[in-house]
């Protein structure tokens, strides 16, 4: 394989990697917004639950029953974490990090968008 073919292969790999990471960005943004909204709802509900004087007077389950907004948002947040939202909000970073690990063996790396970074070859002195 000559150097021209190798350069074309690298360009094709880079194009595909940047395309794949760019394709993940819209979904990642939506998952981040969902996580932010549910987290804010849970925090707001928790605040209202904690400042309610009735919370201290009744049982735990009764206090949760009296605050359905907090209960539902908390259950939703827990469900989102069980569904893997913590991985979905950082998916492009995970892909880039795994590519960097593999590319390091070939004196290359990539940025967070998938652009290849060619590192200089180490000079062997003999």
TrEMBL record:
One Gene Ontology cellular component term attached to this UniProt record is:
nuclear membrane
Transmembrane intervals:
33-51, 63-85
Q: How does this protein lie in the membrane?
A: Multi-pass membrane protein
Single GO BP term: protein localization to nucleus
Main location (coarse class):
cytoplasm
What are the subcellular locations of this protein? Cytoplasm; Nucleus membrane
Molecular function (GO) terms for this protein are: protein phosphatase regulator activity
What family, per the record?
Belongs to the CNEP1R1 family.
Protein name as annotated: Nuclear envelope phosphatase-regulatory subunit 1
- Species of the source: Aquila chrysaetos chrysaetos
Q: Which gene encodes it?
A: CNEP1R1
